[in-house]
Amino acid sequence: MDFALALLSGALLALSFPKFGHPAFGWIALAPLLVALAHRPQSVRRSFTLGLLAGCVYFAGTLYWFVVTLTLYGGLSTPIATFAAAMGLAYLALYPAVFAVIQARLVKAFGRSALLLAPAAWVATEMARTRRSTGPGAGGWSVPSWRPSSSGPASGGRCGSAATR
Question: pLDDT by residue (tens digit) across 3-15?
Answer without folding.
Answer: 999 999 999 999 9
